[in-house]
Amino acid sequence: MFATTGIIQGNTVLTNDYSLEKYNGRRVVITVLDEEHQFDTVSNEKLFSL
Question: Is the Cβ–Cβ distance between 42 and 50 less than 8 Å?
Answer without folding.
Answer: no
